[in-house]
Amino acid sequence: MNARVHQPVHTDHHAPSYYAASVNRRIEVPPLAGEEKADVCIIGGGFSGLNTAIELAERGLSVVLLEAHRIGWGASGRNGGQLIRGVGHGVEQFESVIGADGVRELKLMGLEAVEIVRRRVQQYNIECDLTWGYCDLANKPSDVEGFREDFEELKSLGYRHELRMIPKEDMRSIVGSDLYVGGMVDMGSGHLHPLNLALGEAAAAQSLGVRLFENSRVTSIDYGNEVRVHTAGGSVRAKTLVIGCNAYQNGLNSYLDGKVLPAGSYVIATEPLSAEQAHALLPQNMAVCDQRVALDYYRLSADNRLLFGGACHYSGRDPADIAAYMRPKMLNVFPHLANVRIEFQWGGMIGIGANRLPQIGRLPNQPNVYFAQAYSGHGVNATHLAGRLLAEAIAGQHSKGFDLFNKVPHITFPGGKLLRSPLLALGMAWYRFKETLAG
Fold this sequence. Notes:
The protein is an alpha/beta fold. It contains eleven helices and 17 strands. The protein is globular and about 60 Å long.
């Protein structure tokens, strides 16, 4: 039943995803030709670059943004569309570096990050199917205990949105499956159309005077008191540089390249379902995510398709047939979808850091070069926070948040380009094995 599947290809066009097929706007963005000059040059046309550009332009700085492919071409335009609170995993591990108050600030920023998205969509009237409601799904009883701890912590942080624990017997009010033993609903998180959000933010940046250039791959960078960024068609001179390439570094900067591991994540989209079918799958139209190492995340689109994603791959190789790879995972949750057609399949690279905290900072020995990357699965909200923190630092505003992120050290993955993905794949296989033993 896999007829009419759209095969993923990697070109300067967007990946042939459901998102690319349902964009609600086009923007006219030429390649760089000749020389441009600006206060800040940004490399990367995803959420990190776009939101840094907006924040800087709102503060009165001139900005040029260079994108190697198309705006939103990478993870920003391909992800599962889940907008979930929080940054990082287990931020208590950083207490020895930033103190207990710093850890609390990181947690509060993880809540504020979602609010930045909420306000940006409202301020610039971006149509991106933003829908509120999310549920963490428990695969085993210990997950439920973890949710209870999260619930209490969020309350202690003054979280203003509705939270509620869902016992096993009520889980079908959230998901039409008997696979889960409980859940926690968060009405302050939700889901959206990520490519429409990126394109809407690009239009917002243009309206503020940001100069955007697509199909403008950076070939080299001259560092110094003034940076000069070169492409095949021209160059940009700027006082300050921001590198926001995340998993698509491609050797641009060796320091940053070694600290982020590209990991493949994949999504399939069904044909449009009837209202009754869609309601049976996700009765409250929430985004959901389970707790396994090789997690499943899924939601409904605005036209009632099931968008089912997951299967984080550290091998560096995409499955030959994403639909064939992902379909059994979907049927494990919803076996009654066996005769439903898959119409889109796509994948892309997310950036993983060793400690799972977003890397937001300034290059050592290059005080005018900033970066943001390695969002480890929380990119939709954390990128928007990164844009805010980078702009504050660049504009000379006191940014406690930037200082906290910049203090946290990030190790370089061992093994270089050839060995780091296989080593991580082996490590993740061990975690999956332990997960199986734990039941």
